[in-house]
Amino acid sequence: MTKNKIILIFVGVAVLIVVLFVVGKPGTAPAGADLSQAVAPGTLAAAESNFDFGAVSMAAGKVTHTFVVKNDSAAPQPLTRFYTSCMCTEATLIQGGRRMGPVGMAGHSPVPNWNLTIAPGEEVQVEVTFDPAAHGPAGIGAIAREVRLESDTGTLLTLGITANVTP
């Protein structure tokens, strides 16, 4: 084979790998997609699955929002993992007045294995705190973060926050 054919084959294989990685990457969804029922409908649901803080000043400090999550199925829902998508975000689970957490981003803070069950019809709260100053000046602008509640079978619920970080 000529050198040009080998280079052409190599480039073609590399492009194919990149396309397959981007298109077939698990857990990705188009921007703006509702990820709140990522595995099976009828497990956990939230009246609002996304919350927009609007303009958030780095100088003003942390902001917090509480989501209400309900097990709308007839079966108990086990919760084995609970974490955020970024180190600038923490989440606390509140069940029957008991506060568990806060938890952060996997790989940057401990994400304990949970052994928690949410009973049929039970409501819990997920308190999400975002620190707009966590990324410093490079963090100015639009952000989107997630909090995931998972069981051994996959994602039960994804809650999202957005903001426009200003100095």
Please tell me about this protein's structure.
- The protein is mostly beta strands and 167 residues long.
- It has one domain (34-166): Immunoglobulin-like.
- 13% of the residues lie in helices and 45% in strands.
- The protein has 1 helix and 11 strands; from the N terminus they run H-E-E-E-E-E-E-E-E-E-E-E.
- The strands form 3 sheets. Strands 1-3-9-6-7 form a 5-stranded antiparallel β-sheet, with no helix packed on it.
- A hairpin with a 2-residue loop joins strand 6 and strand 7.
- The longest helix is centred in the N-terminal third of the chain and has 21 residues, at 3-23.
- The chain is globular and about 70 Å long.
- The chain starts with a helix and ends with a strand.
- The model is unreliable at 19-42 (pLDDT under 50).
Would you spell out the secondary-structure blueprint of this structure?
Layout: H1 3-23, E1 44-46, E2 50-57, E3 63-71, E4 77-79, E5 81-84, E6 89-95, E7 98-103, E8 116-118, E9 123-130, E10 141-151, E11 154-166
Parallel strand pairs: 2-11
Antiparallel strand pairs: 1-3, 3-9, 4-8, 5-10, 6-7, 6-9, 10-11
